[in-house]
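User: Good morning. I'm curious how adenosine-5'-triphosphate would be positioned relative to this chain. Could you predict the structure with it bound?
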Amino acid sequence: MDDSQSVPDRPVIVTKPGHSISRQDIDPNALKVVFRLQRLGFTAYVTGGAVRDLLLRRPAKDFDVVTNARPGQIKKRFANAYVIGRRFRLVHVHFGGGGIIEVATFRRAVERSEESGPEDESPPPSPYGTPEEDAFRRDITINALFYDVINDAVVDYVGGLEDLARKIVRVIGDPAERFSEDPVRIWRVLRHAARLGFSVEESAGREISVNAHLIAACPGARLYEELNRDLASETKPVLTALRESRILRHIFGKAGEAYEIDDRLFSELSSILEAVDRAKTAGVPLSLGEMYAALFWPWAKPLFEESGVDFHKILNDTLRDSGMRINIPRALRADFSQILIIAAAMERALHTGKMRWSLARRPLFGEAARLHFLIFKGRPPEKEESFETLFRQAFPGGGSERRRRRRRPRRRRQDQGQPF
Ligand code: ATP
Ligand code: MG
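Assistant: Good morning! Here's the predicted structure, ligand included:
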């Protein structure tokens, strides 16, 4: 396909019936914010993923608003508005029922030198900009469209409408530069292409293969944030794309490498992620602990095959030495480790008939059971099902109680281990 793009006269403004967005599809709270800002004489648009998804006739998630009003001006005019963020200030407008609309002021691309310059006394340059500058500092063209609610028009500075029609994920600006500015954009390009079934524009594709390693230099906390975005929606297609671009190793260290090298291992992970994705689509509220345990199960499983060893310690040591770049908070690491260990005990019990039922008193036993169903049955348990029902089916006689080897009590601290 010819990926070349003609630069449109900017902006392209498309009114009805040239686009498929209907005001009824927009979150009423976002509409309230936009109308109010417009009445006060400001410009305000809905932007980001919501505009992209509505144009594709997909349900939209969060409705971000951009405006030329400054955070302080917004805060003054909305009763329940809170300014958040240090580097770039945003406003959260809170509504009854827990709804929050994020309102950002149009911003320009911030030069690297401005971002990381030494702290001095002079005031930092204004991060704010025009709508056009705001569109151009965004990641990909299909994410940089504005919806003007008052005129019922889509405003396109970057050629996003054409790329939506041609199903292309195109980086705004020079891909090499934009990736080196912020390597997380590599992940974002792959995510959107995988989720939407779009192709990655050629030069961006080339730069991804050259620059995949830059992901490893991202702060672990950002990688954690990005992974959670993928876990919150369809996970398997995105992880498959990350694997194809050899990025898993730069996120998960040895675990990622194993998933990249070993087809069988990744195919096992794929089936589990498919089950996880199906459960999410069906509205099953999976915890982060369960999803992280699902991610690591195929890789960690061999650790649980030895007997008479301290699984917590082995898992902890293995994770610590794995060169993991993603920074998983300690509490979550403790949770998914626990879930993995209990799920492995369940699997052993179904083979041996010996179950240590004291595990059932652990708070994460239910989550481990659900993970066990997802892994081995490809679905979560039905209402009347539990691990106990599985076990009774396999061992109608009740099996036997597996006694735990007496060990000196370990300190809790050891359980938690080192950060990785
Ligand atoms: P999702 O459906 O996952 O929410 P999204 O496109 O809305 O997709 P967000 O992470 O919610 O993604 O970000 C909102 C918008 O902010 C994006 O649409 C994009 O315009 C911009 N954006 C986010 N991350 C970056 C980045 N790293 N560089 C440039 N622009 C970004
Ligand atoms: Mg979003």
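The CA atoms of residues 235 and 277 lie 7 Å apart. Confidence is low (pLDDT under 50) at residues 413-420.
Let me know if you'd like a different ligand tried.
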